[in-house]
Every structure is written in C-alpha cells, then in structure tokens.
Amino acid sequence: MKQDKKILIIGFVALLLFTNIFSFLFGGIFSRNIFGSASTSSNANDQYSKLNQVRSDLEKMYDGNVDDSSLMEGAVKGMADSLGDPYTVYMNAQEYSDFNSQSSGQFSGIGVQILANHDINKIVVAAVFKNSPAEGAGVKVNDYIVKVGDVDVDATSSDKAVSLMRGPEGTNVTVTIYREGTGNITLTMKRAIVTVNTVTSEMISDKVGYITVSMFDANTSANFKNALNDLKGKGMTGLILDLRDNPGGLVDQCVAMASNFIKRGDVVVSTKGKASPEEKLTSAGGNFIGLPMVILMNGNSASASEIFIGAMIDYKLATTVGTKSFGKGIVQTTHSYPDGTALKVTICKYYTPSGNNIQGIGFQPDINVEYPADLLQQTYNRDTDPQFQKALETINSKI
C-alpha cells in the first residue's frame, strides 16, 4: 500500500482517507472473502459473515445488475461513515484526484472554496476565486450550495459536491445555491482551469502592510514569506493579516508560516491521539519576530488557520479582530491505495502552545466586530468593512 503522508487540518473540503489496520481488516477479510475465496481466520469470518451473506443474497435476488466494484465502494464508504466523524471519509479515485488538485493550487471547476458546516448541515461558500466561473455567475461568500446537477448536497456530502463541481475544462455544470433573503438560485457555469493564489499582499499606507491568506496549500508558506519580504522592502512596520474565510489546509505550511514570527525551537502546535504519540511541531525561526500584527478572523476561519491564530495568541504576538473562529481542533491524515482510492481519517487532536484544544469551541477575538449582513449582499468595499477598519485603527496604534 502506498501511504501519502499529507497531514491535513481542513475545515472545508470534506474530501478524503486510513491505516494498516484498515488494510488488514478490509483487504484481508472483506475483499477476499466476499469477492474471492482466500481463507481467513474463523473469528474474522464470523465477524464479517453478514456482509458475505448480504452480498450473496443481493446476487441471487436483486432484479438487476450487481456490480462488485460498486458494492465494495459502498461498503467501504459505509464503514467510514459509520464512525460518525464527518472528517473521516473514503474517496473513490475521482474524488481523491479532485482533492489533490485542490491542495496543489490548480484545478478545473467553478472556482469556489467551501466549508462543510456540520452544525447547520450546510455547505458554505467560504471564498470565490477571482476571474473564476463562480465569480462571473455571481456566487457570493456565505451562499449555501444545496444542489449540484440533480444531486442534493449538504455538509455530510461535501466531498461529493466537490467532485461533481469539478470536471473537464469547458464542460457545463449546474449549481443551485441558497442565499439568505433571496432563496434558491440555479446557475449554469462552464468549468475552467482555476489557479489558486492563496496569498495576496499590498501596502495600504506608507507603514502598514496587508496580506490575505485564503488557505494553506503547497505553496502558501513560500509565497507568504515572499510577500513579507516585499512589503518590508516597501517600508512596512506593521501588518494586518486577513485569515477570514480561511478553512485551513496543510499543517506543515501553517507551521512554516508561523515560524516567521516565533522564535526558533518554540512549539507552534502539538498533536496527540489514541494511536499516535505526542508530537511537537516547532518553529524554524524567522526574520519578522516582533513585527506588530493584527489578525482578522471570523466564523469561517478554521483548522490550520486556527493553529496559526492559537500560536499568535499564546505567544502574545498579535491582536485579533473580528468574530469567533470555527472551532476545528482535530487532525486528519490521508492514505492512498494502489487503485487510486484513498481514505482521510481523524488521527489526533491538536493543542496550542499553552495546551488548549478548541474543538467545537473556537477562539474569541480580542476585539469583537460583527460584519453586517446587508454588506454581504453588496460588492466588497474595504472602506465600509467595519472589521478591516478596526484592524487598521488597531495596527496604527501599535506602530
């Protein structure tokens, strides 16, 4: 079995992957015993005899075609789903390919970033990428995706929604969104290659730099460091870092990004789980330790972005402005199989440097500022964004 050691802490793209125990149980018992004739132990046969019996009964009685590959996929998905953990998900080959394209920074689709909000069982649009089909069609942040094609989707099927929205460049896909105050809107969009630049930056005054990080993909930490150096060369003495609507991503990228501000050797985050010993991920050190910083956050700031926020809070390196973060304090890892399928499994909880876990809790900002609902329906204007304006006021008081 090929194992991809890609550690994820992602709040949105419910996509994804397990371990040698699963391979033994399912590969050695289920697949061989149900779809072959290899012998297994009597205890294992007893444990999984009902699966064998159901498969046999379906083949004998079902008035239609019984496809063993479909049965296998359904059974494996059911095994993962039965755990009741929305972040532990089995993916078929297409779903896994879609997931990998997201973290690589380029894919063919409509150009949205989603958050699976299991509290309300909705798929929330966390970001709309610039110059994407979704932007052209008028999709907005905080819209709910309720149907793709003829398939109803919700937070429990966000992996399916992502797979359905992806497809060959130039093909059409119909997406139904629900918007507060408007209701359902059905949009047909032509899929296009979407290149995701997760880091954007600019100087907003002669001393204040502004960086937005939309998620943590494979290029985020390097691009973030380049942005810091560029802004420093332009005179930056204080930074506003916007992590609003950032659903998370790759942990190593988050740790590398945090290292710019934390002393070498200090813990950024630690993880501990039933089957994994405690691991402390430490800072590599950086050239921006002591830089005055304000972090913008909201209810869609999740997972890896919360790791970053937690480290900055614990070391008192930044002031946070906005609203309470999402509250995802668990870690997943991905494991791929030779047939191109994969499993994402929750392996541990993560803890901030002071030992806090915020699963289901989130972080409260130092300065709470709500974003008015009516502004969400308007074209974004930084001058009328009360959270940004408070962040600007705060960083100016620090420099």
Number of DSSP helical runs = 12
CATH class wording of the largest domain? Alpha Beta
First and last CA, distance = 54 Å
Return the CATH topology of the largest domain.
2-enoyl-CoA Hydratase, Chain A, domain 1
Largest sheet: 7 strands, antiparallel
Average pLDDT works out at 87
What would you report as the Rg, rounded to the nearest angstrom? 23 Å
Output the CATH homologous superfamily of the largest domain: 2-enoyl-CoA Hydratase, Chain A, domain 1
As residue ranges, the low-confidence spans are 1-5, 9-40
Helix % is 25-40%
Gross morphology: globular
Secondary-structure arrangement, i.e. CATH architecture of the largest domain: Alpha-Beta Complex
Give the strand content.
25-35%
Number of domain modules: 3
Number of E strands: 21
User: What structural class results from the helix and strand content?
Assistant: alpha+beta
What topology does this entry show?
Elements: E1 6-10, H1 20-35, H2 42-47, H3 49-61, H4 68-81, E2 89-91, H5 93-104, E3 106-109, E4 112-117, E5 122-128, H6 133-137, E6 144-148, E7 151-152, H7 158-165, E8 172-179, E9 183-190, E10 192-195, E11 199-203, E12 208-213, H8 220-233, E13 238-242, E14 248-250, H9 251-258, E15 267-272, E16 279-282, E17 293-297, H10 304-314, E18 319-322, E19 330-336, E20 342-351, E21 367-368, H11 373-376, H12 386-398
Parallel strand pairs: 12-13, 13-17, 17-18, 18-21
Antiparallel strand pairs: 1-14, 1-19, 2-20, 3-10, 4-5, 5-6, 6-7, 6-8, 8-9, 11-12, 15-16, 15-20, 19-20
Helix pairs in contact: 5-7, 8-9, 9-10
